[in-house]
Structure formats: structure tokens, C-alpha cells
Amino acid sequence: MKRLYITIACLAGLLSGCNDEFMDRYPLDQITDENFWKTAQDLELYCNSFYPEYITGFGTDWGTSTVAPYGYNEAIAYGDVISDNAAPETYSKVAADQYNGYVGGGSGSSGWSWGNIRQLNYFLDNYQRGDVAEDVRNVYLGEVLFFKAWDYFKKVKTFGDVPWITHALETNSPELYAPRDPREVVMDSVMHILNQAIEFLPAKGEEKTDRLNKDVALHLKSRIGLYEGTYRKYHPEIGLDGTAFLSASVEAAEQLMAGSYSLYSTGNASTDYNDLFATYSYDGNPEVILWREYSADLTYGVAFSRYYAQNLRHRHGATRNLVDEYLCEDGLPISQSPLFMGKDSIQTEMMNRDPRLPQTVANFGTYNLQEGVQGANNAPLPNIPGLSGNKCPTGYRVAKWFLNDPADWDRVTNGMQAALVFRYAEVLLNYAEAKYELGEMDQAVLDNSVNLIRARVNMPPMVLGDIPADPELDGNYATYCDYVPDAVLREIRRERRVELAFESFRWDDLMRWKAGKFLEIPVEGIKFVQEQFPGVIVDKDVFLSEEGYILPYYQTLPDGRAFDEEKQYLFPIPIEDLVLNSNLEQNPGWESN
């Protein structure tokens, strides 16, 4: 799933449904709705336009598009800037309970957009019109059902109840003025069409070059099943049982685990994890299930590599809260391990830690830009406030996804860094968590999931009956949530946070665990050492906590981030859509805003 949908992207939108714009743009003697839908090539051409819509990777060109309603840049690496994993220079209004994008945004804004669903349904209304063999057309049916399931999953995560639309609507369709359908109905429908997609899509290796296969759909099923199953458990107020979804997640994961996938490893625990995210190609990588390719040869690329290396998008840094959650090399939390060297500097706190920490967050002097390259003053010391250049507000400069190749930076919008979209490690983590939530945890489950991931970086395995205590993390749950998870689940969640950091999972995880209050944990950065930053002035350029940690939002957000549990687990529907359809009801807590 790489070059094909890129090379034909110029055809996207050519057949966007039977509407006035379509008829105005294309001569009737070349392509019309009447003479389309006749061949397998027609079906393939129509489906091609969905690939870049859903498999966004790092975006395209300058990569400036943002994800509605969350407000972060669409590149996978930036999704965590609204979570407790990261702090952007300009604080996230979503994370600070200041979101108001649904006011004045107009109908169809803020994520309440249905154009793609209409195009998917238009295919479903028409794909059987031609004389195409059933087994052939069902492959494209599987693609459309996959994309529709993925789209609806995103909408349910964002809004909860949403309308389930089964055909392409016109301006006079009564469904335009119908109320939302219950979450239960929508998610049952999502799983139904996703199972159909799995049935219709070809097995891995039997698909056309760069097109969807069963494994991609199974991966999505494992993700959706875990999300919905745990959301229902930890949000009992919605009154839904998530057992069937958790079982579906396990079923999908087990099918993938029985296949040929494995974790990428060359045996070098100090580099393999970072290398996984800094590459031009994933061809032959045993961990990768879905990725997006970029190619300068096709004059099709993105400025991600250049902008990420120079910290130009969001100008963000990792948080102390994330860094503190990494274990020491002995498998113990920093509060319990004799190997932990303290927090007197970033150099000391990085010592004897999980190898993924220094491969995710740059220690001073690592992951440098070459001298003379624009933005090179971002390293070897991060550009904390008070220094020139693009800021890293916490001092924890993110190294994950950093491709150390000036040639790619110089390509600018033709950057070729590959985007990893679905990978096997997530499947293993989905499996472990779903098995725990189903009450089916045993040592074999851990050995076949979490412990494989730990083994890649030479971390000690998890052993049932010998899970280390972590009073600090348990204390955070007690303070910011209304529950403290069992130690096994706590460690599975830790492993997920560490392994998937800066892959745009953390917000969804906090939402489904009903742990949104974790956003209220004070945002802190590195321990400030004056000798390392002689020109930076305390209480003018930087502000520090009592312990000496940088406080990036001391002036801009003095009361810290906030999370309203009565409303923020869902986003609001745009006001204009509520006016246009009086049968729509606003999500709880947003009515008076």
C-alpha cells in the first residue's frame, strides 16, 4: 500500500458521485455516471481516491493539514501533542479545556463531516451495476467497507452517537434531519461491515500491488475491539457491555499472531527501536502491516523530515510525566530501582533506563543535525526558552521519527521518509490488554505479547506474581482517576505508553480508560542546570518548579491544564448543524457553551 494510490492521486475526485459539480467539470462524452461502473477498472479507479484520504501518513507537500477537531498536524508523530506525553510551545486548547472550535465553524466543521461517507455509500449504491464477476467486485467492496468502518470508528470516538447512513444522501433525503443513532447500533454495524471487509479482501500476498489485504482489516479490528470494549467498561454510564468487542480484538490479534509477522530487530537494542521509525522504505520489514511511501522520483513527498528535524511543527517537547514512566534496566520503576541515578540533570536520569527512552527522547548531544544545516542549533542542546531557534519548551527533544539525513531535509516538500501506519507491536499490545480485561491473563499471554516487545530492547520480562510495586504511578491513578488498576494492567498500560509514544495513541488511550484527568498532572520539563545554559535567565526566560524543573506554561497557563469529566470525553457537534437539524442533540456538558 504505497506508490499506487499516490501515482493516481490526480484522478481522485474524478468520480465523486452524481452531482452538479461532477457534471459541470467532465464532458459527457468522456466519463459520466451512466457509462461508469461497467468494469473492474472503474471500481478500482473509484476506490483509489480513498487511499490518501484515510492512509494519511505524514500528509503531503508541506503537511500543514490539521486533524479536526483535535487541532494537531495530521502527521502521525504529532498526535500526542494534545496528550500528557508532550507539550507544544503554544499549549493545546483541547488539553486545557478551552476548545471552542465548534462555535462559528459552520456546518460540517470540527470533525462533523460526512463527505467521505457519502462517497463510500455512493460506491455501495452503484458497484453492482456492471457485468463484473462477483469475486472481483467484492475485493473493491471490501476496500470500501474497510474505509467506512475506519471512518465511523473515528466519528464514534469523537462524538459518541452518530447517524448511521447506508446510502448516498441527496439534498432532499429525510435522513439529513434524523436524530443520531445510538452508539450500540453504530458500533455493531461497524464491526459487521469490518467482518465483511475481512471476508472479501484478499489474503496477504494475493492482493494487487499496494492495495489492502485481510491483515490490514484484521489489524483495524483488533484496534476497534480493544477501544470499544474498554471504553464501555470504564464508562459504565453509557450502559453497554464491551465483552464481545474485547473478544473480537483477541480473535483478530490471534489470527495475525499466527501469521508471519515478527518485531523488527537486528539484535542491537540500542538502535533498533529508533531505526524502525527513521527509514525510506518498509519493504520486507516483518513488523509492518501498513505504511505509506513517499517518492521524490514521482515529485510526490512531504516536508515532514525537514520540519521534524528542525522542530518546526508544534515546537514541542516530551513531558517529564512521560519520561518518568520509563523503567530502569532492571525492570523496576525509578522510585524503586537502585539503578536510577536521580534527576539532577537529563544526563543522569537517562542512565540505566529502558533503551527506548534515549531512542525516543534525545539526550544532550544525540540525534544532532549536521553543522551548517538550517536548524542545527536545535542540538546538541535543545532550544529551550531563552535560546534562539525553534523552541523545545520542555528540553526533552523528541528523537523518535528523526531521520538523520540532510539530503532528505533539502528535498523539502519532496521528502521521502516513509510513514509507518499499522505495526505488529500494536497488535501484541492490543492482545495483552484485551486478554487481561476478559479475565484470560496468564504467563503465556505475556510471553507471547508484552515480553516479545521487551525482549527487543533487552528489558526484563513481566512475570505474573512478581510485578514490581509503583506507588507513584498508583498514586497518580488514585489522585486523577476514580480507580487504581491492578498491577498487571498498570504494567500493560505502561508498556503501551512507552512502546507507542508519539504514534498518536495516547489521547485515545486516556479517553477509553476514563483517565482524562491525567492531563491535569503538572506539565514539567528537564531539570534546569544553569551551567548547561549560561545565557538563559531564570524567572525571565524560563520558570522553574520548586524542584528546579522547567515549567513551560508558567506564564501562559498558570493554573495548569484542565479536564472536565462531564463533557471532554466527547467533542461537541457544530452549532450550525444543530440549527440545521433540530433533531440533533448536543453532547452532554457542551449545551451552554
UniProtKB/TrEMBL annotation:
It comes from the Bacteria. It is found in: Cell outer membrane. One of its GO terms (cellular component) is cell outer membrane. Its main location: membrane. Transmembrane segments: none annotated. Residues 79-226 form the SusD-like N-terminal domain. Keywords: Cell outer membrane, Membrane, Signal. Residues 287-590 form the RagB/SusD domain. Belongs to the SusD family. This is RagB/SusD family nutrient uptake outer membrane protein. It comes from Echinicola soli.
